[in-house]
């Protein structure tokens, strides 16, 4: 088959590592990595976004989750190959630097930053929405609750990576445990046909309310961008690998288990929700799990489930601050991000990048003040576009690694993406298709798509602002490629 022209490999640093990896403590354990991988894929997209999507598309949402789940697995498997190739806290930004040069790293890094910055807005919006479930918070303005959520999680994230790992571990335990309990209760209710608010669960709940596609096939396609957003966070295990001992052994083991967890928690949960209540019983302003337990009438069950989904929102925000802090530091050391984002505190936490992301969360607080009813949907759609861009960059890096291996310029590890290069090509086509569907969706989706050219112009303008600093960082590395295309500069962790 015809292949693209392969660029010469950039010179590696003496250690073969990205300079942005210096200074971190390897304090994440296998149990942290396992729960980060699981918890990263279980957040506001499932616990809150599923309600509105079920109301719009009906049971066919399970098919959308299954299809997107397959491609999500291919993305994380490609990332796993890159991690085993070279673990780095900069993750795909570091791999883009190695395989595409500094321009590629710049685009990958800022796209990922925008992904989590906007996701953080969605998370604090979701947290504020969940909190208003309890009457004590009903009178509190939504923006105040959003600000409280941001302040709490920011404090947790600035302590140390071990503290982050423990917090995320227990957040994930709560989420997985709650979903497991819900699914067990749901299976019992369906098997015994126990009424829920006058509705007898079972297949009739689907067939008597429009079938599997109550609104047709097109609405199922149009919610794909929201479903992709629900899977955002799977790539966290790649970033966390830079602060994990024996990452080359742990990461493949974690990734191998992701596929069946996706099918179990996402597809299984949606199918059970569709069997328990008609799709018209769900809404965008309440978690579908809370809806079920509220109608079931179990004392306190809805409040407990609401606490769980609040935990999911805080967990997602916690992960976003963690991820962007590491990615921005990798970029800052190479000169393509503000210098202060490279700074670390005594706990070896890149606090500069975390604070920059948190500042965007303040914009989310303002959004909750200006338009509390639409805040979640607006930021969710924009975050979905950024997720598509991030996943696309991961697959391009994977394809370039395959190319180099084919020309004898690199060696692919034993843990690799199956079906290359066709897996990467099909996934990239799928991502382009989802973006096209988003553009075709009238309303918020169209406005989000129109914002993409604005972001593209901002990225181009930003590159012209930082390219001199990138070149200076490369020159100061002593042997880096001209123009900053090397594998990473040797600027130390104390860049300021």
What do these coordinates show?
68% of the residues lie in helices and 0% in strands. By secondary structure, the chain is an all-alpha fold. It has one domain (26-467): Up-down Bundle (Amino acid/polyamine transporter I). Helix 8 (142-157) runs antiparallel to helix 18, helix 12 packs across helix 19 and helix 20 (422-440) packs across helix 21 (444-477). It is globular and about 70 Å long. The chain starts with 29 loop residues before the first helix and ends in a 19-residue tail after the last helix. The model is unreliable at 1-16 and 479-496 (pLDDT under 50).
Task: State the main characteristics.
single chain; 496 residues; mainly alpha; Amino acid/polyamine transporter I; globular; disordered N terminus; disordered C terminus
SSE layout and pairing:
Elements: H1 30-40, H2 44-47, H3 49-57, H4 61-85, H5 91-100, H6 102-131, H7 135-138, H8 142-157, H9 161-192, H10 204-207, H11 218-222, H12 224-230, H13 236-240, H14 247-256, H15 258-276, H16 288-296, H17 301-334, H18 351-370, H19 375-406, H20 422-440, H21 444-477
Helix pairs in contact: 1-9, 1-14, 4-14, 4-15, 4-19, 4-20, 5-6, 5-19, 6-8, 6-17, 6-18, 6-19, 8-17, 8-18, 9-15, 9-17, 12-19, 16-17, 17-18, 19-20, 19-21, 20-21
């Amino acid at each position: 088959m015809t292949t693209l022209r392969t660029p010469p490999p950039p010179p590696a640093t003496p250690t073969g590592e990205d300079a942005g990896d210096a200074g971190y403590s390897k304090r994440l354990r296998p149990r942290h990595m396992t729960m980060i991988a699981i918890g990263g894929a279980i957040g506001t997209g499932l616990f809150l976004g599923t309600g509105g999507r079920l109301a719009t598309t009906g049971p066919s949402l399970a098919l959308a989750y299954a299809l997107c789940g397959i491609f999500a697995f291919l993305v994380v498997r490609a990332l796993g190959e890159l991690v085993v190739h070279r673990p780095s806290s900069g993750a795909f930004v570091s791999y883009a630097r190695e395989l595409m040069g500094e321009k590629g790293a710049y685009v990958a890094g800022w796209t990922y930053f925008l992904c989590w910055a906007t996701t953080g807005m969605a998370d604090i919006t979701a947290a504020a929405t969940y909190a208003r479930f309890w009457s004590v918070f009903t009178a509190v303005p939504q923006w105040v609750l959003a600000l409280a959520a941001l302040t709490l999680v920011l404090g947790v994230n600035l302590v140390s990576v071990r503290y982050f790992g423990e917090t995320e571990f227990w957040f994930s335990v709560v989420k997985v445990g709650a979903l497991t309990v819900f699914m067990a209760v749901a299976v019992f209710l369906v098997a015994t046909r126990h009424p829920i608010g006058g509705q007898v669960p079972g297949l009739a709940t689907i067939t008597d309310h429009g079938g599997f596609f109550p609104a047709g096939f097109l609405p199922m396609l149009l919610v794909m961008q929201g479903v992709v957003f629900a899977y955002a966070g799977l790539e966290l295990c790649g970033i966390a690998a830079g602060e994990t001992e024996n990452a080359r052994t742990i990461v493949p083991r974690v990734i191998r288990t992701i596929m069946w967890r996706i099918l179990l928690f996402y597809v299984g949960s949606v199918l059970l929700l569709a069997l328990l209540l008609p799709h018209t019983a769900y809404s965008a302003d309440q978690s579908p799990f809370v809806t079920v337990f509220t109608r079931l009438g179990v004392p306190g069950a809805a409040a407990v489930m609401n606490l769980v989904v609040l935990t999911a929102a805080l967990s997602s925000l916690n992960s976003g601050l963690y991820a962007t802090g590491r990615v921005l530091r990798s970029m800052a050391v190479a000169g393509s991000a503000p210098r202060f984002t490279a700074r670390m505190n005594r706990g070896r936490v890149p606090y500069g990048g975390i604070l920059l992301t948190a500042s965007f969360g303040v914009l989310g607080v303002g959004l909750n003040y200006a338009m509390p009813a639409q805040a979640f949907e607006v930021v969710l759609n924009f975050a979905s576009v950024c997720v598509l861009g991030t996943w696309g960059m991961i697959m391009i890096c994977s394809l370039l690694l395959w190319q180099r291996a084919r020309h004898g310029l690199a060696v692919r590890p034993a843990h690799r993406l199956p079906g290359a290069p066709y897996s990467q090509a099909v996934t990239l086509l799928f991502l382009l298709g989802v973006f096209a569907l988003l553009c075709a969706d009238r309303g918020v989706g169209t406005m989000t798509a129109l914002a993409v050219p604005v972001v593209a112009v901002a990225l181009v303008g930003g590159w012209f602002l930082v390219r001199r600093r990138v070149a200076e960082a490369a020159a100061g590395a002593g042997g880096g490629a001209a123009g900053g295309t090397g594998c990473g500069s040797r600027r130390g962790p104390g860049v300021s």
